[in-house]
Amino acid sequence: MALWVDKHRPNNLDKLDYHADLSAHLKKLCASGDFPHMLVFGPPGSGKKTRVVAILRELFGAGSEKIKIDQRIFETPSKRKLELNIVSSNYHLEVNPSDVGNYDRVVIQDLLKEVAQTQQVDASAQKRFKVVVIHEADLLTRDAQAGLRRTMEKYMGNLRIIMCCNTTSKIIGPIQSRCLLVRVGAPTVPEICKVLQKVVKKEHCGPLPESLALRLAEDSGRNLRRAILMLETAKVQCHPFKDNQEIPRMDWEDFVRQVMHQILKAQNPESLQHVRGMLYELLNHCIDAATILKTLAKELIERVESNELKMRFAQEAAFYEHRLRMGQKAIFHLEAFVAKIMSVYKRHQMSMDH
Amino acid sequence: MSSSFFYRPRAGGPASAAAAAASNAAAAANKPWIEKYRPKTMDDISSQEQAVAVLKKTMESQNLPHLLFYGPPGTGKTSTILALARDIYGPEMIGSRVLELNASDERGISVIREKVKNFARSTVSHNIGSQNCPPYKIIILDEADSMTADAQSALRRTMETCSKLTRFCLICNYVTRIIEPLASRCAKFRFKPLEEKHSKDRLELICREEDVKISPEAILSLIRISEGDLRKAIMYLQSASRLMGKDAEIGVDVIADIAGTVPEDVIDGLEACWRTRDYKKISNEVSNVVADGHSASKILSQLHMRLLRTETLSSIQKAQVAEVFGDVDKALSDGADEQLQLLNMMTRVSTIAA
């Protein structure tokens, strides 16, 4: 039994629920016979992958959905063997080169050249080229991106690249100038509500109260995948849907909220020690350190009243998040953030007392 | 019996030739315009007068120094050296006399030691057939700034010992990333961003050849958006014409859409937030912008343009804001979270501006 998210994923361009003008543009592009390299970007849960799959279907027909998964082995110049899973059909390949970390350059160089140097075997295929889909392109190293540059021009006859990423900030300029940039914005709250209603109708599981749909959409932070997952969980918890039904929260989010209370309750070394234990607990449950920091910052900012403090907290969060990305050991930076917040908060309260 | 045996391949011959010609024509139609309109000879190159004039002079004397081309992307560095090689060797000889290596090829120290050295060492004769060939070969090292320092130092002595037989041409964006000993062995040519006039001529030529309808303002905005990068401009033009089809005229809005520039009203909204010191308003605006999928680095650069023109801030305030922008840009290119960084930027700027 598939999750609703996968089950109700639209599989062609006509069935997409929002960004109608983008779909129309893409359709025209696929029909023209000629197709550029593409860079699809947008926040998570906005439907990038869905659109890419729909484009492939539009280009190659239903054949693009017959996929298989292979494991390929690449060899680095230093004779280290790398394994990478590749999803492929007759017409396209999907890779996630960031899985192999620093060696992604090898994958890009070997794989793309191999694909580019073989022509489409099937003579009846409508298109002369194969498509390579690169997921999480913003995690590619600079070397790998540099390796893409000339390849993209040289083998344009046989090969088109579609890259998916969350932000274009980390894609180097030369690649951006070789691609058609496609922005997929997150759906708005009313759009999410509409999709949720549609899913409920298809599943035949009773009426979904408007207010509950609205709350689900708002809580998801304009992330459609999350909204549908939350809807499915809500159905398991309480069915038929009730108007004032509680929206299921992640238990780690509740735990982060406890951390926040602890920070605002007491600002001293003992409290910091206590918080450290809680942070370790979160990290041990494999929750990404950046996500912890972001959620914690959000909770803190919502809690405090003063406008000045809110601004200050946001600035500190940005500062320590940056350090976290640069550094090695997450706990140092999380703890530094907590200590800084404590000191700022305490100072603020003391100035209020005077 | 035998006649039919011989007859068949003959009948197949012209038919398959016609099919091949058709597929070649299809390939030509599918060719990206940046390849199709790449200058073929030195006379075709319309800009970079200074570099081209010097190169032409050296071509006449049949004695080429080692070359180092540097400059921003899309200014014609690769095109110039390819055109030069074609002028010198003619289309037949170019394959055997020119070795082109770029970042998509493995270019570690071992490749320099073996492949490059062997190619550099082999001698060539003066004249072959009617074509008058100079007695040297050319090795083009494209994107040389992504070579490691070790690989570059391995080139040093090779460049000198083989200078009778081989000329090197290094191409890079940042001349500072080429080690000094290499740079001092080459004649340096700086490629400037293209002037508006040249880009305009080229774009208009392409529009005429390809039968593209475009308004004059749209061409100007193309040139402005591409910032002297002709490849970007041509790429955008082709994407726009694909999107709009043959009949519709390409307007300014389509160009802005394709180039991924953030709409002016979004920037207006952010700029208006500077004046308020209200955290809630700022955070709402920022999360909407991020959810719409606009890239933070683009927002930053567009806000920066606004900053220069705005009259409400004093010079000192502008300088302080610029400093904030610098910090945030650094953090973004290190891969920090976009939302937090934008919040950070907005709150800090609003404290300065208010």
TrEMBL record, chain A:
Keywords, alphabetical: DNA replication, Nucleus
Keyword Nucleus: yes
Taxonomic superkingdom: Eukaryota
Domain AAA+ ATPase residue range list: 34-188
GO terms under biological process: DNA repair; DNA strand elongation involved in DNA replication
GO molecular function, one term: DNA clamp loader activity
Localization terms from the record: Nucleus
CC per GO annotation: Ctf18 RFC-like complex; DNA replication factor C complex; Elg1 RFC-like complex; Rad17 RFC-like complex
Main location: nucleus
SUPFAM superfamilies in alphabetical order: P-loop containing nucleoside triphosphate hydrolases, post-AAA+ oligomerization domain-like
Similarity-based family: Belongs to the activator 1 small subunits family.
Protein name: Replication factor C subunit 5
Organism of origin: Entomortierella parvispora
Automatic annotation (TrEMBL), chain B:
Family per similarity comment: Belongs to the activator 1 small subunits family.
Cellular component, GO, one term: Elg1 RFC-like complex
Main location: nucleus
UniProt-listed GO biological process terms: DNA repair; DNA replication checkpoint signaling; DNA strand elongation involved in DNA replication
Pfam families associated with the record: AAA, RCF1-5-like_lid, Rep_fac_C
Subcellular location, record wording: Nucleus
UniProt-listed SUPFAM superfamilies: P-loop containing nucleoside triphosphate hydrolases (SSF52540), post-AAA+ oligomerization domain-like (SSF48019)
NCBIfam families for the chain: PRK00440.1 (NF001679)
Record flagged with keyword Ribosomal protein: no
Keyword list, A-Z: ATP-binding, DNA replication, DNA-binding, Nucleotide-binding, Nucleus
Boundaries of every AAA+ ATPase domain copy: 63-195
GO molecular function, one term: DNA binding
Entry keyword Repressor: no
The protein, known as: Replication factor C subunit 2
Coiled coil: none
